[in-house]
Specification:
By secondary structure, this protein is α+β, with helices and mostly antiparallel strands. The chain has a single domain, classed as Nucleoside Triphosphate Pyrophosphohydrolase. Helices cover 23% and strands 31% of the residues. It is built from four helices and eight strands.
Length: 153
């Protein structure tokens, strides 16, 4: 991975109805995204995935169904004031398709980061409508690679 881009993992949980889990960020309100997070130095992507899901959605009880073949990248907007945008040009994410085990699911009360204030199960198309514009192309690429977008004719 390019050192100008933060190495990350991104989780796309799906359910039996074909919906995907999105979270509403605490800041800025109204911004929705898939759970994601950085890979720490020396950490394997699958380790980062379990740690990040525990921190962000309060649950690491899931099975991995698929993962992207390579990183999916996006650039931060030039006017971003986020601390991570001062250190990196963007993020390089390994996308994972996941399914919760048994009765497991997101529990924001158990989340340590408090990054999300709400979660929702939505169609993949609705997830694309909710995501911030600068991430949309990466979301289309990732959802398509994981086979979660309907084929367009």
């Amino acid at each position: 991975m390019d050192s100008d881009f933060r190495p990350c993992v991104l989780a796309v949980f799906s359910n039996e109805r074909g919906e995907v889990l999105v979270g509403e960020r605490a800041l800025p309100r109204g911004a929705w995204q898939f759970p994601q997070g950085g890979i720490d130095p020396g950490e394997a992507p699958d380790e980062a995935l379990r740690r990040e899901m525990s921190e962000e959605i309060g649950c690491a009880d899931f099975d991995v169904l698929a993962r992207s073949a390579a990183g999916i990248r996006y650039h931060f907007p030039p006017d971003s004031t986020a601390p991570v945008a001062k250190q990196f040009r963007g993020q390089d994410q390994i996308w994972f398709h996941l399914r919760f085990r048994g009765g497991a699911g997101p529990d924001l009360e158990k989340a340590r980061d408090r990054e999300f204030i709400a979660t929702a199960w939505v169609t993949p198309e609705e997830a694309l409508r909710r995501v911030v514009a600068f991430k949309k192309a990466a979301y289309v690429q990732g959802l398509a690679e994981l086979g979660l977008l309907p084929q367009r004719r």
